[in-house]
Structures are given as C-alpha cells and as structure tokens.
Design a protein that fits this description.
Layout (H helix, E strand, L loop, with lengths): L15 H4 L5 H15 L1 H7 L10 H13 L5 H8 L3 H6 L11 H13 L2 H15 L7 E10 L7 E3 L27 E3 L6 E3 L8 E11 L5 E8 L4 H11 L8 E5 L6 H9 L2 E5 L13 H4 L2 H9 L2 H11 L11 H25 L3
Parallel strand pairs: 1-7, 7-8
Antiparallel strand pairs: 1-5, 2-3, 4-5, 5-6
Length: 361
C-alpha cells in the first residue's frame, strides 16, 4: 500500500535527546566536554558583569564552535541557520526544540569575548588535563611539525608597500597584471590581510598568502598538546617548535622530540639540547647540506620509534584541513586564526579521546 505524503500536521511532544541515537559518537564527545566546561565556570563568571542584559552563554559559544569544526560548517551564519532545524545541534547545546537559534551577528560579536580572555587556550588545557586523568598522556616523548595554511586574502590584494594610488577602474575587483613584477614580502603586502605572507611549500610551486600552523604532539596517544599560528617565513617552523617546547607542561629531563628533515639544523638541535630535550629529527643529507643529527642519536632504538610515531601528527593536520575545513583560513590576522586553530585542535583531541576510550581493553 502506498503511504501518504502529507504528515506535517501532527503534533508530537519529544525532546532532542530522544532523536539522537544512543550509540552516536557525539554522545561520547559531549560526555567529555561537560565536565571541562563545569571546571571553567569560575572563569566564565569573571568575564561577565552581574548586571545587564543576559548574553549568549559562553558554554553555548564554545559548544557551537566545536560543532562548526566537527561538522565542517563554513561560517557562523550557516551554523546559526542550521541550529534552527538541526535537532542534534540543539541537543548538543542543551536547547529545546522550540528555542530560537542565535542571530549570526550576535553570535560572532559575543564570541569576541572568548578571544579577549584567551578562553580557547584555557579550554584546550582543561581538555588535556581531562586526558591526563584518563591516563592518555605522557611527559617524555613528543613530535613537532608545521604546515602552511592559505590566508583569507587574494593575490590581487598584494600591492607594493609604497604604492600611493590604488588601481582605478574595475569596481571592487579590478584587474591586475603581475607579469614581470617581482613580489616579495619585504616590498609587498596584502591590503586585505596585512599579516599574511607570501610563501610556498617547495620550490617550483606558486606562492600564496599563508600562515604557518605549528603543533606539539605527544607520541603515546597522538593528542595535540599545543598549537601555534605564526607568520610564514624561512625559519618560522623551527622557531615555533622551540616556542612550544619552552612552554610545555610536565617537563621531563629525558624528553625527546621527533620531527622531519626541516628541523635538522644546528641551531634547532642546539636549542633543544639546552632545553634538555633530545632531538629525534629525520636526517637531512640532501645535496651538499650536512645535518646536525649523527650516529650518536640515530643508533638508539628510541630514535627509530620516534620516527615511526611522528607520522601520527599528519593525521591531526589532515583532520583539521578536511573535517575542520581550515585548509583555507576563514579569518583575518594571527590572533583570530590562533583562536580558530586552537578550537580545531580541541575538537580533534576530543574525537581522538572518545575513540581511544571506546576501544576494548
């Protein structure tokens, strides 16, 4: 028998919790997030005044940002639109079915308060402390790596720094002829995002306006301990790694750090040893270059193990670029992109923690 197509007139009393399957992976993630947000409640109290009109709760701002990352939502406006009809989103934010969605402008404006108080970094640290209580972290073996992320700016916006008059004609998007013009960061800058830098991953590839994202990963579970967004330059990858190693928690005197060939330089190896960290980076013997790593390091079994485990960091970058949709950044400036990438790392850690806890012993 053919069923009827008109079924929207019926009234039913259900809750979003009833519509989310009991075995859905998002339930494990929410179980990890709730105690962390409760722990951060005193910080949230300090951010708001006791009087005035109630704003969007910071818990909703953080949860909403996590949902944007977990479900590849490309903008705040699209998220607020989806929140109006997506029962899973309402359930994750503890909203009722008839609760209205947030206004996109209000959501973005209120989230700026999280940026001012560095809540993302505190949120990530609280998640890592929860991972430590679940015995998912180690304090001895780490990996560093960096990747280029395309900035939210067009190559057309790259102009000479001393240019007096912008090109006329063409409306908001005038044509530009770059043939024969040598554009370098010393003499040119983007008028859209002045902090972005022209950079390329390897010789022969076209340069793009980019930022560098650096991560510090612990080797036991593959969780990201730290993430740093900087301007792209020839030494930024190694400088960012040293910065993260200096501010790492749980310093252990026999710590090791793995890395690829880009870190096999005398300066990086020297700075690591000054921090009581043994560099287990891949040897760079290409061309005439002679790396700083020799047989005194590579002969140990731990070196080979670090080289195997360091490949886990590519899973984190791959997840953030595909699922998190950060291959091309959506914000302008280092500060805003640092907030977004920190939330990307938090979301990745939550997914990985949920999967590790779900595995049979």
């Amino acid at each position: 028998m053919r069923g009827p197509t008109t079924r929207q007139a019926a009234f039913t009393a259900i809750t979003p919790d009833q519509k989310v399957p009991r075995n859905h992976p998002i339930r494990r993630i929410k179980a990890l997030v709730e105690p962390v947000l409760k722990e951060l409640s005193p910080l949230f109290d300090e951010m708001y005044r006791l009087i005035g009109r109630p704003s969007i709760p910071p818990e909703h701002l953080l949860k909403g940002t996590l949902l944007m990352t977990l479900y590849s939502v490309r903008s705040e406006r699209q998220f607020c639109e989806r929140l109006e009809y997506d029962l899973l989103f309402k359930w994750f934010l503890d909203l009722n079915i008839d609760d209205p969605a947030f206004d996109a402008s209000t959501f973005s404006k209120n989230r700026g308060r999280l940026l001012e108080h560095a809540v993302a970094a505190r949120f990530m640290q609280a998640v890592l402390e929860e991972a430590g209580r679940r015995r998912l972290l180690s304090e001895e073996h780490f990996t560093v790596d960096g990747t280029l992320l395309e900035a939210w700016a067009s190559l057309k916006s790259v102009r000479p720094k001393d240019e007096q008059d912008p090109p006329a004609g063409g409306g908001r998007n005038p044509d530009r002829d770059f043939h024969g013009e040598r554009r370098v960061n010393d003499t040119h800058a983007s008028t859209t995002d002045s902090e972005a830098r022209l950079s390329t991953k390897s010789k022969g590839q076209a340069a793009k306006l980019s930022y560098l994202a650096h991560v510090l990963m612990e080797n036991r579970s593959g969780l990201l301990l730290d993430i740093l967004v900087t301007q792209a330059s020839g030494t930024a990858e190694r400088d960012g790694a040293i910065t993260m190693l200096k501010r790492r928690r749980g310093i252990h005197r026999r710590a090791t750090v793995g890395g690829d060939k880009a870190y096999d330089t005398k300066d990086f190896v020297r700075q690591c040893r000054e921090l009581d960290v043994t560099p287990h980076v891949a040897r760079n013997l290409s061309g005439r270059r002679k790396g700083a790593i020799d047989g005194r390091v590579t002969r140990h079994a731990g070196y080979a193990q670090s080289q195997r485990k360091r490949k886990l960091v590519e899973e984190g970058f791959g997840w953030m670029k595909t699922v998190g949709a950060c291959r091309k950044l959506r914000y302008i400036g280092v500060l805003k992109n640092q907030f977004w990438m920190t939330m990307e790392a938090v979301a990745y850690n939550l997914v990985r923690m949920a999967n590790l806890q779900a595995r049979p012993a």
